[in-house]
Amino acid sequence: MRDKNAEELLELETELRDQLVKLSVAKATQRANNTSQFQRIKKDIARVLTIQRERGMGLDATATGQEKAE
Fold this sequence. Notes:
The protein is mainly α. The chain has one domain: Helix Hairpins (Orthogonal Bundle). Helix content is 69%, strand content 0%.
């Protein structure tokens, strides 16, 4: 996810939120088979928001061009 630019992260967030809504509707109509996807999708949304916030604050090493030594 960190390799994506700001526009791609925004698209990913929108897509994940759409998936969450669809899954919520499926659960409400008792058609949801795999409810463990709720937790996965919510965590992915949180990851995207964290990356966006880090970049907004200037804390992301990849956004500034600095890479961590591994």
